[in-house]
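ok so I'm stuck.
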Amino acid sequence: MAHHGTTLRNRSSRPSGWALGLLLALGGGGALAQTAVEYSNVAASQGAASSAGAMKVAKAAPGAGQTQSAGAPAAPSRGDGPNCSGEVTQPTMVNVATGKSTLLRLPEPIIRRSLGNPKVVEARLVSPQLLYVLGMDNGATNMILQGKSGKCVVVDVVVGFDTAGLRAKIAELLPDETGVKVSSAADSLVLSGTVSDALNANQIVTLANAYVRTGPPGSNQSGGGAANMASPTTQNLLSPRVVNMMAVAAPQQVLLEVKVAEVNKTLLEQMGAGFNFQLPGIGFIRQFQSAFPINGSGSSSKGVLALFTSKKTQALLEGQDQNDLLKILAEPNLIAISGQEGSFLAGGKIFIPVSQTGTLGGASTITLEEKEFGVGLRFTPTVLSGGRINLKVAPEVSDVNPEGIGVSLAGSSGGTSILPSILTRRASTTVQLMDGQSFAIGGLISNNVRHNITKFPFLGDVPILGTLFRSDSFKNERTELLFVVTVHLIKPLPADYALPTDSYTPPGRARRLLFGRMEGAAPDKPGAPDQDNDDDQAQAAPPPEAPRAKPASGFEVK
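replied:
not stuck anymore, here's the structure
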């Protein structure tokens, strides 16, 4: 037995089993070894008692990737691909998953074939009318098959991801998501269709990413059979990805009601003494006092306990007790689509000077930086199955600090500048609620105590009498903040929704001047005329069943 150009003959009209096995073994290289396998029956001469089968194995020219048969009278033996002497049919599309194979049954025996890109697909002729196709890597190529009659068939082969496996996994894990479509495009998975909510859409994308992260299997370059698989091929230059074109079936809108309650209580107690005196024989005035300065008229703006004055001496005993109470209540309402972020701010802006060094000459310039303050809210709702709402909420309450921050600016005359500062209280959390449920964010409590003592050395330490030589300041500030958040699923209102001003009508002249009325007859009582004014009868309201032309806008709680 010899290879390449050697003819194997058997006494029977059909090749024996060992000869067919040898044919498959020698043809195992397929397109990878550029070896073509042909099989044909040669009729015996007239008058012969039996027919003989012939099987010939020949190596094609490099790059031809073809199979030819000696039993084709209309097809010459050429090494440059099929020579289509008959009709060429329209291309046929064949889709193969990466790493999977299929069998193509052909209408007539094939004598020649050519393959465009052997790295994308592997094709083997297992019988004259049966073609084995294996998907090697993502991509597209084609094959040209020539039959015994001279007709040619063009087969377009597209190799992509195993979309059937992903569809089966989605049906297993998410049986209610029947509107999801999975397709392959080049080196990407395309997800389309509709899903019930955004959470399921994210889970489907996660499953698809797991599929595209799996590298496509490859095939080695050696012959030996269809089951001879080896290491994966070289990865694509472009990593595969998932194209998400899914849409939520009915985007739900969420209304967020937030109540911000803050109580700030401040207790201030101060007591001190102040003296202005002139020492005998010394021409200066020495003053030591507390935080209650004595003005030029000898009085003070604080609570005065006693005031003593003479030509050379002034003495002042002063005390103060102050209580402050601050209450803040804000109720912002905001609407957002499921999966989208909404924000709200009720407050203002301040501008803080910021020093920046210039690029030319190193000179510094002062710019103003914008800062916002007030009651703010940021939230992102996601409607889940069963009416559950996943909510990411971040409320914030900020205010300008009246005390500010004292800084010394370079190049100034040595004074201290007071820069504004912002006091901020914020919280951030993620919860899951049902429609109409509420949750509270509390525990934002602060308790600040400041105690300051200023005294004259030695004399301020004397018991009882030392009170006249020292000043005492005590400040206690307590703040408590509470957020209460309520979520609602909403839907649009009908076109004829009621307005708060529907029940108001302006009063007539007689009703306004004679009876001091501020409103006219109610529109829902058109049959009851005003006994005090004939003008109200002329302004009778339309019947309540009359339709009102209003724009279709607004929302209502579901």
